[in-house]
Input
Amino acid sequence: MLQPLLHYGMHFVVPLFIALLFFRKKWLVVYGILLATMLVDFDHLVANPIFDPNRCSIGFHVLHSYWAIGVYVVLLFFKKTRVVGIGLVLHMITDYLDCLWM
Ligand SMILES: [Zn+2]
Output
């Protein structure tokens, strides 16, 4: 019961806090970008089966592989891609927490 709550809290509430705390002047734009990074879950569509609550996304899906995560971390170092990087890394942490839970 607690796990989905934590998962969606991380996906929706934590980005809001990050946007409000660190990007106060344009928090809405930043929040929008952070939510948009959830699109990386589209790689689940090419997986079979599409959704499996007992599967660990990390290391399984293309955009959740370790080399992809490495790319997301690199994005953090450039000002223009930093917000996208934050969203993607946060997403991976969220998905990874799910894996620990199993
Ligand atoms: Zn994911």
The chain has a mean pLDDT of 89. The chain has four helices and no strands.
